[in-house]
Amino acid sequence: MRRIIKYAARQWKLYLTSAIGLVAGVYFSAMGPQYIQRIIDTCIVAGNGSAFFVLAIPLLASYLITGVFKYIQEFASDCISAAMQNCMRRDTFRSIMAQDQYFFRENNPGELMSRTKQDIETVGFSTGFIFIFFVEIIVHVIYMTYCLVRINTASAIAALVIMPVIAVLAILSEPKGVKLSDQRSDDIADMNQSATESLSGIRTVKAFGREKTESERFDRHNRMFYKHSLQLDYLWANWITPMDALARIMLLLAILVSGIQVIAGKMTLGQLTAVTQYTSELSWPMMEIGWLLTEIASAKASLKKINKILDAKPLIKDGPKHLEKPCGELEFDHVTLDVSGKRILDDVSFDLKEGKSLGIMGATGSGKSTIANLAMRFIDPSSGAVLTNGIDLRDLDLYSARSSKAIVTQDIFLFSDTINSNLDKGQKGQILQEILEQSARDAAAHDFISKLSDGYDTVIGEKGVGLSGGQKQRVSIARALASGRPLLIFDDATSALDMETEKMVQKAIRKHGKITMMIIAHRISAVRDADEIIILDHGRIAERGTHDQLMALKGSYYHTYMTQYPDDAPESMDANEAVGIQESGVQEAR
Fold first, then answer.
1. Where do you find CATH 1.20.1560.10 in the chain?
2. How far from each other are the two terminal CA atoms of the chain, in whole angstroms?
3. 122, 139, 152, 398 - which has most CB atoms within 10 Å?
4. CATH 3.40.50.300 in the chain, residues?
């Protein structure tokens, strides 16, 4: 609630404007029954027709003025809703962007989309229009009650005795409404997640004939949303019906009591009419309470989910130190990583000097990509340290820890934007066009980019739809080169390239000289020219050395080489050994 108050305080001018419109609107709307009372008593009952226009003109003016102030009130409240949504959506998205990968393991994209759209819209609507409307009902009821009591106390008591009963019914309905609103909010998040996954992976869905399966999965979430929506509607129908009936009984009682007093000569016919109108003005707020509580219940459920995001604290935090010019050096000092009780890396150490290259190989699950994540400080080690410039990454702010590195992964992500925008990471004009194009040439991407409809200004679809896997990888490599960062991390980044293109890209990168490279790969061709190659086995370094040194060891690296290049087998190797190597290579691949 403190957070909402903080947001609301920024919109105090709009709240004040809406409050002025609210109070003035209620005041002038209460003048209508008074003029109608005078018209009936003076013009109709007393027969003074000449006073009709004298009273009718201010009556019309009160209606027009009420309309103007109502417009001011509602427009200001709508502006408050929009402003609150803007502030909350901005802060929520910034909070999401500040989180680490541990957060995204527990919160899927569909759920986060629901929070930043549906839930924020619900809370914004409630803190703007609903809040102002709630205050209007309070002010309206108090002032109309005052006007009713001024005319006749007995009639007022007859009407007001029903109001507490209506209020109690509305309050009793709230807890169930909160629960159903919370469930419905979760249903929306599930639907968003289902739709996002199906549409993002539409090619896989169609390739494996999963259209029916995905449609059924979405239908399940849709049916749950439908079910909880019906239950919520059923709940309010059950409560609103008796509240509506009680509101009409309240009006009937007021007319009955007033009618008896008119017959007894204690009230005029004009006063009876005014009592009827003021009682009607009291009955509609009572009937709106159910709807108000529905919206408030939805807002409470949504606010709880939004606060969960805003209150989330990333485990990966800024350190106290900042580096103006971080270099490409990287050191792993006895790094061990445990996740959920499982050891992923075990006492890994290596020292990657500036301008040098390191190749990392190993079977699937051996910890290769984990090393890349540690180098980027997406995660922190359980023990040991990852250092750059001789400083533990945990002691650096996140910008310094990551600004020296550019990573290219097998899972390429390209934005739905132009090629240029993807290459310069959205920093319009901050990187010279010549540098972008040279980076594309080095990544063997310039030729195919030039043949696109608008060249470097061609807009590609989401995640690079329209480009082949190899083309997307080359654009991603070009993006890393264009960044000018001294350490490039290739996490199986050339897997979609043919051997010839891979060699051409590696040759172009090595021309830069000072670039430091960490190359994680399954193919020998990607790492054989590295200054050092390490072989991981179940999180530990099993072998290390240059290509020639590892071949001489005739260990895991040697066996992998013989599997990938059987034609290069030495003459001294007999047929049984060759078959054994190939079989072990197949097992490792599996």
1. 2-310
2. 54
3. 122
4. 320-404+522-546
- The pLDDT of 233-249, averaged and rounded, is 78
Helix, coil or strand: residue 57? helix
Whether pLDDT at 523 is above 70 = yes
Separation CA 169–CA 506 (nearest Å): 74
Number of helical (H) and strand (E) elements in the chain, helices listed first: 24, 10
Q: Which CATH number fits domain 2-310: 3.40.50.150, 1.20.1560.10, 3.50.50.60, 3.40.50.2020?
A: 1.20.1560.10
For residue 465, the SS3 value is coil
The mean predicted confidence, pLDDT, of the chain is 84
Answer whether CATH 3.40.50.970 is correct for domain 320-404+522-546. Answer: no
pLDDT digits (tens, 9 = 90+) for 53-71: 888 899 999 999 999 999 9
3-state SS record for 516-537: EEEEECCCHHHHCCCCEEEEEE
CA dist 255 → 148, 243, 261, 280 (Å): 12, 19, 10, 11
pLDDT of residue 146: 92
Q: How many CB atoms lie within 10 A of CB 357?
A: 22
588 pLDDT band (50/70/90 cuts)? very low
Whether 346 and 336 have beta carbons less than 8 Å apart is answered as yes
Q: How many CA atoms lie within 13 A of 412 on its CB side?
A: 27
- Backbone φ and ψ of 48, nearest 5°: -90, 80
| Most confident by average pLDDT, 136-145, 153-162, 418-427, 581-590 | 136-145
